[in-house]
Amino acid sequence: xxxxxxxxxxxxxxxxxxxxxxxxxxxxxxxxxxxxxxxxxxxxxxxxxxxxxxxxxxxxxxxxxxxxxxxxxxxxxxxxxxxxxxxxxxxxxxxxxxxxxxxxxxxxxxxxxxxxxxxxxxxxxxxxxxxxxxxxxxxxxxxxxxxxxxxxxxxxxxxxxxxxxxxxxxxxxxxxxxxxxxxxxxxxxxxxxxxxxxxxxxxxxxxxxxxxxxxxxxxxxxxxxxxxxxxxxxxxxxxxxxxxxxxxxxxxxxxxxxxxxxxxxxxxxx
Length: 270
Hints:
The protein is α/β, with parallel strands linked by helices and 270 residues long. Helix content is 43%, strand content 22%.
């Protein structure tokens, strides 16, 4: 009798444990399903930018991040039905930020290069640009050959570095100083610590408008290029959602309106 009672107690205990496990698994599954639905409802794209790259993405006098690419990213996200978060990053580590998953897109005057094609997926190009050389307005420099023996400023790990390295003048300059941002490079130029800066034409045109009479461009440019959005390798699904949104922005005039706001004309590639 004692043996029967003991066996009965064991069976009852096991039954209670099984019911508890089943209920816990059901609750977990329910919670997981709920989280999945929330993720779908509130999906957010994290866009990595250099927040000192006017007029593409930069901080205004109120310290708010604004710019052409910022408006483009927000408009594209709206068409995709997702939220967008603008995340300032160290531009030197942009591909690492993307591949680690800390950001979803590199979108801030990001130039298409063969080297970058090996690291990221690109959308179709949306804007043309050139790498140019800027100096002070009263400088006697006027052409690329005049850079021989001069000190050059440049943003580190930018396409400007590639353009300079690909030009024969690179072997004739005195030295190259790399900066975290173009703003720092231009500051040193104005202070006389460098003789010229290699920079995106889109960027320097903005500063020449803001600081009239301060800068001038050399007659020759270094290299033409095109901007596109960078997506993590292997994330074809995101690219396939983003590109149609960009195409629609071209078709309905959204991109043209944003371009006119920042450049005074429609410069977006169709």
